[in-house]
Amino acid sequence: MLLFETLPNLAGVPDVFATLTARESARVAAAGERIDFDAGDHLFRQGDAHSGIFILREGIVRSFYVAPNGREITLANWTPGNFVGGPDIFSEAPHVWSGIGIKAGHAIRLPGPAVRRLMSDIPNFALGLVQGLAYKGKCYSSLLQMLGTRSVVERLAHLLLNLIDLKGVESEGTIVIAEMPSHEELAAMVGATRQWISMTIEKFRKRGLVDINGRRLVVLRREALRAIADGC
Fold this sequence. Notes:
Layout: H1 22-31, E1 33-37, E2 42-44, E3 53-66, E4 72-78, E5 83-84, E6 98-110, H2 112-121, H3 123-149, H4 152-167, E7 169-171, E8 174-177, H5 183-190, H6 194-206, E9 210-213, E10 216-219, H7 222-229
Antiparallel strand pairs: 1-6, 2-6, 3-4, 3-5, 3-6, 7-8, 8-10, 9-10
Protein backbone atom coordinates (compact mmCIF):
# COMPACT_ATOMS: atom_id res chain seq x y z
CA MET A 1 0.00 0.00 0.00
CA LEU A 2 1.59 3.29 -1.09
CA LEU A 3 -1.15 5.94 -1.16
CA PHE A 4 -1.93 6.80 2.46
CA GLU A 5 -1.52 9.69 4.87
CA THR A 6 1.27 8.37 7.09
CA LEU A 7 3.29 5.17 7.18
CA PRO A 8 2.83 4.43 10.92
CA ASN A 9 -0.96 4.17 10.48
CA LEU A 10 -0.44 0.98 8.48
CA ALA A 11 2.40 -0.50 10.53
CA GLY A 12 2.33 -4.13 11.53
CA VAL A 13 1.65 -6.06 8.34
CA PRO A 14 -0.24 -9.22 9.39
CA ASP A 15 0.84 -12.75 8.56
CA VAL A 16 -1.87 -15.41 8.53
CA PHE A 17 0.72 -18.07 9.41
CA ALA A 18 2.43 -16.09 12.20
CA THR A 19 0.36 -17.44 15.09
CA LEU A 20 0.07 -21.03 13.80
CA THR A 21 1.98 -23.93 15.24
CA ALA A 22 4.06 -26.07 12.89
CA ARG A 23 1.30 -28.70 12.84
CA GLU A 24 -1.40 -26.09 12.16
CA SER A 25 0.67 -24.53 9.35
CA ALA A 26 1.12 -27.95 7.76
CA ARG A 27 -2.61 -28.59 8.00
CA VAL A 28 -3.46 -25.25 6.33
CA ALA A 29 -0.96 -25.90 3.55
CA ALA A 30 -2.31 -29.43 3.01
CA ALA A 31 -5.87 -28.10 2.71
CA GLY A 32 -4.89 -25.87 -0.20
CA GLU A 33 -2.92 -25.83 -3.41
CA ARG A 34 0.44 -24.19 -4.00
CA ILE A 35 0.21 -21.61 -6.80
CA ASP A 36 3.47 -20.36 -8.30
CA PHE A 37 3.29 -17.08 -10.21
CA ASP A 38 5.59 -14.78 -12.15
CA ALA A 39 5.37 -11.03 -12.58
CA GLY A 40 2.47 -10.43 -14.95
CA ASP A 41 0.53 -13.59 -14.01
CA HIS A 42 -3.07 -13.13 -12.88
CA LEU A 43 -4.10 -14.95 -9.73
CA PHE A 44 -7.69 -13.89 -10.35
CA ARG A 45 -9.53 -11.58 -12.74
CA GLN A 46 -12.29 -9.04 -12.29
CA GLY A 47 -15.61 -10.61 -13.26
CA ASP A 48 -14.49 -14.23 -12.83
CA ALA A 49 -16.07 -16.38 -10.12
CA HIS A 50 -14.27 -16.59 -6.78
CA SER A 51 -12.35 -19.83 -6.30
CA GLY A 52 -11.06 -19.14 -2.79
CA ILE A 53 -8.38 -16.98 -1.22
CA PHE A 54 -4.63 -16.89 -1.88
CA ILE A 55 -2.30 -16.61 1.12
CA LEU A 56 0.93 -15.05 -0.11
CA ARG A 57 4.12 -16.79 0.98
CA GLU A 58 6.55 -15.09 -1.43
CA GLY A 59 6.33 -12.31 -4.00
CA ILE A 60 4.04 -9.28 -4.36
CA VAL A 61 0.54 -9.10 -5.85
CA ARG A 62 -1.16 -5.92 -7.03
CA SER A 63 -4.92 -5.64 -6.73
CA PHE A 64 -6.56 -3.23 -9.18
CA TYR A 65 -9.94 -2.21 -10.57
CA VAL A 66 -10.70 -1.44 -14.22
CA ALA A 67 -13.63 0.90 -14.92
CA PRO A 68 -15.98 0.41 -17.90
CA ASN A 69 -14.10 3.19 -19.73
CA GLY A 70 -10.81 1.31 -19.31
CA ARG A 71 -9.38 3.56 -16.59
CA GLU A 72 -7.46 1.56 -14.00
CA ILE A 73 -6.69 2.24 -10.36
CA THR A 74 -4.34 0.32 -8.09
CA LEU A 75 -5.98 -0.64 -4.81
CA ALA A 76 -2.89 -2.05 -3.06
CA ASN A 77 0.32 -4.03 -3.46
CA TRP A 78 0.15 -7.03 -1.14
CA THR A 79 3.26 -8.62 0.39
CA PRO A 80 3.86 -12.06 1.97
CA GLY A 81 1.63 -12.84 4.93
CA ASN A 82 -1.41 -11.12 3.44
CA PHE A 83 -4.16 -12.95 1.62
CA VAL A 84 -5.78 -11.84 -1.63
CA GLY A 85 -8.84 -12.98 -3.54
CA GLY A 86 -11.54 -11.32 -1.41
CA PRO A 87 -13.64 -9.59 -0.45
CA ASP A 88 -15.89 -12.65 -0.83
CA ILE A 89 -14.31 -15.63 0.88
CA PHE A 90 -16.89 -18.41 0.92
CA SER A 91 -19.06 -18.02 -2.19
CA GLU A 92 -18.41 -18.07 -5.93
CA ALA A 93 -19.62 -14.51 -6.57
CA PRO A 94 -17.76 -12.57 -9.29
CA HIS A 95 -14.49 -10.87 -8.38
CA VAL A 96 -14.92 -7.10 -8.18
CA TRP A 97 -11.23 -6.47 -8.95
CA SER A 98 -8.18 -8.33 -10.26
CA GLY A 99 -4.95 -9.57 -8.69
CA ILE A 100 -1.70 -9.78 -10.67
CA GLY A 101 1.84 -10.66 -9.69
CA ILE A 102 4.35 -7.82 -9.79
CA LYS A 103 7.14 -9.84 -8.16
CA ALA A 104 7.40 -13.60 -8.69
CA GLY A 105 6.47 -15.83 -5.78
CA HIS A 106 3.96 -18.39 -4.61
CA ALA A 107 0.73 -18.56 -2.66
CA ILE A 108 -1.48 -21.15 -1.00
CA ARG A 109 -4.94 -21.19 -2.63
CA LEU A 110 -7.66 -22.25 -0.22
CA PRO A 111 -11.18 -22.91 -1.58
CA GLY A 112 -14.06 -21.36 0.36
CA PRO A 113 -15.23 -24.62 1.98
CA ALA A 114 -11.67 -25.34 3.18
CA VAL A 115 -11.39 -21.83 4.66
CA ARG A 116 -14.68 -22.37 6.54
CA ARG A 117 -13.48 -25.72 7.97
CA LEU A 118 -10.08 -24.35 8.97
CA MET A 119 -11.62 -21.32 10.69
CA SER A 120 -13.86 -23.64 12.71
CA ASP A 121 -11.12 -26.13 13.61
CA ILE A 122 -8.12 -23.83 14.10
CA PRO A 123 -8.89 -20.68 16.15
CA ASN A 124 -5.45 -19.21 15.43
CA PHE A 125 -6.16 -19.42 11.71
CA ALA A 126 -9.47 -17.61 12.17
CA LEU A 127 -7.68 -14.95 14.24
CA GLY A 128 -5.08 -14.50 11.50
CA LEU A 129 -7.77 -13.99 8.87
CA VAL A 130 -9.56 -11.42 11.05
CA GLN A 131 -6.29 -9.53 11.55
CA GLY A 132 -5.72 -9.64 7.81
CA LEU A 133 -9.22 -8.30 7.14
CA ALA A 134 -8.68 -5.49 9.67
CA TYR A 135 -5.44 -4.51 7.93
CA LYS A 136 -7.19 -4.50 4.56
CA GLY A 137 -9.90 -2.30 6.04
CA LYS A 138 -7.24 0.23 7.11
CA CYS A 139 -5.64 0.15 3.67
CA TYR A 140 -8.86 0.65 1.72
CA SER A 141 -10.15 3.26 4.17
CA SER A 142 -6.93 5.24 3.79
CA LEU A 143 -7.14 4.99 -0.01
CA LEU A 144 -10.76 6.15 0.00
CA GLN A 145 -9.90 9.10 2.26
CA MET A 146 -7.09 10.17 -0.06
CA LEU A 147 -9.22 9.84 -3.19
CA GLY A 148 -12.12 11.69 -1.63
CA THR A 149 -10.33 14.57 0.09
CA ARG A 150 -7.12 15.26 -1.88
CA SER A 151 -6.60 16.69 -5.34
CA VAL A 152 -4.64 14.61 -7.86
CA VAL A 153 -1.59 16.88 -7.43
CA GLU A 154 -1.74 16.45 -3.66
CA ARG A 155 -2.08 12.67 -4.05
CA LEU A 156 0.98 12.52 -6.31
CA ALA A 157 3.01 14.59 -3.84
CA HIS A 158 1.89 12.28 -1.00
CA LEU A 159 2.86 9.24 -3.05
CA LEU A 160 6.33 10.64 -3.74
CA LEU A 161 6.80 11.40 -0.03
CA ASN A 162 5.78 7.84 0.88
CA LEU A 163 8.22 6.47 -1.71
CA ILE A 164 10.92 8.62 -0.10
CA ASP A 165 10.17 7.06 3.28
CA LEU A 166 10.14 3.55 1.82
CA LYS A 167 12.92 3.68 -0.76
CA GLY A 168 14.74 7.00 -0.48
CA VAL A 169 18.49 7.17 0.17
CA GLU A 170 20.12 10.42 1.29
CA SER A 171 22.97 11.53 -0.94
CA GLU A 172 24.81 14.87 -0.76
CA GLY A 173 21.88 16.80 0.65
CA THR A 174 19.32 15.22 -1.67
CA ILE A 175 17.18 12.09 -1.51
CA VAL A 176 17.48 9.52 -4.28
CA ILE A 177 14.83 6.97 -5.24
CA ALA A 178 16.80 4.60 -7.45
CA GLU A 179 13.91 2.63 -8.97
CA MET A 180 10.77 4.70 -9.37
CA PRO A 181 7.51 3.11 -10.51
CA SER A 182 6.77 3.87 -14.15
CA HIS A 183 4.53 6.82 -15.00
CA GLU A 184 1.80 4.34 -15.91
CA GLU A 185 2.11 2.68 -12.49
CA LEU A 186 2.05 6.06 -10.73
CA ALA A 187 -1.05 7.01 -12.69
CA ALA A 188 -2.86 3.85 -11.56
CA MET A 189 -1.93 4.58 -7.95
CA VAL A 190 -3.23 8.15 -7.80
CA GLY A 191 -6.16 7.85 -10.22
CA ALA A 192 -4.77 9.84 -13.15
CA THR A 193 -3.49 9.27 -16.68
CA ARG A 194 0.09 8.52 -17.66
CA GLN A 195 0.20 11.75 -19.68
CA TRP A 196 -0.90 13.78 -16.66
CA ILE A 197 1.77 12.15 -14.49
CA SER A 198 4.50 12.94 -17.04
CA MET A 199 3.33 16.54 -17.34
CA THR A 200 3.10 17.11 -13.58
CA ILE A 201 6.47 15.56 -12.76
CA GLU A 202 7.98 17.76 -15.48
CA LYS A 203 6.39 20.78 -13.74
CA PHE A 204 7.94 19.61 -10.45
CA ARG A 205 11.31 19.39 -12.23
CA LYS A 206 11.02 22.92 -13.67
CA ARG A 207 10.20 24.24 -10.19
CA GLY A 208 13.39 22.64 -8.86
CA LEU A 209 11.59 20.12 -6.64
CA VAL A 210 12.98 17.00 -8.32
CA ASP A 211 15.44 15.86 -10.96
CA ILE A 212 14.86 12.87 -13.19
CA ASN A 213 17.15 10.40 -14.92
CA GLY A 214 15.21 7.47 -16.36
CA ARG A 215 13.68 5.54 -13.41
CA ARG A 216 15.92 7.44 -10.97
CA LEU A 217 14.31 10.35 -9.14
CA VAL A 218 16.31 12.86 -7.08
CA VAL A 219 14.25 14.86 -4.59
CA LEU A 220 15.78 18.30 -4.20
CA ARG A 221 13.15 20.07 -2.07
CA ARG A 222 11.33 17.63 0.17
CA GLU A 223 9.57 20.29 2.24
CA ALA A 224 8.20 21.94 -0.90
CA LEU A 225 6.70 18.57 -1.88
CA ARG A 226 5.23 18.26 1.60
CA ALA A 227 3.62 21.70 1.25
CA ILE A 228 1.97 20.58 -1.99
CA ALA A 229 0.77 17.36 -0.35
CA ASP A 230 -0.77 19.39 2.48
CA GLY A 231 -2.58 21.66 0.02
CA CYS A 232 -0.47 24.73 0.84
